[in-house]
Amino acid sequence: MKETLEEVERCIVELDLKE
């Protein structure tokens, strides 16, 4: 995985906020 855990977490948080 090139993305760092922090970046992945941000993506997850953004998805949660969108829902």
TrEMBL record:
Q: Say which domain of life the source belongs to.
A: Eukaryota
Protein name, as recorded:
Uncharacterized protein
